[in-house]
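Deliverable D4.2, example record:
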Amino acid sequence: MAMGRYRLLRVVDGRCNFAEVTVRAADSGLASRACASAELQSAHRVPQVWVEAAVQGAAAALGRRPAELAGVEVTSVVGSDVDTLPATVWCAAFCAVLIAAGRSPGDDPKALISTSGGRLGVVLSSAETVYPPSEPER
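Output generated by the structure prediction step:
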């Protein structure tokens, strides 16, 4: 099974954004969907809103790109109370799925992330960037 991990640490409009998400890809058995592992669901130290954002980001990545993956399981979400928003987790999960599917960020993992217009987004190509759902200002 392929694994993907992405650590996002970027400053956008003077605000730090941090999240690290790990996913485990399955070639079959998850029926083209994303879910949280049982361990992650029961981890009281991880806010549920982060888990939900990670699953949504992974599902969005599955829906956009890696046809070779049947599904992914989010196994880990790391953040901080100060620097982690659901949008940050969403982007990190999206990138972790791309990495699990074989897309390498090369020497610069920041290349997968856009901060254009003061929003975090995931760069799929020079012409396409996807953004997490909008959320309230912190």
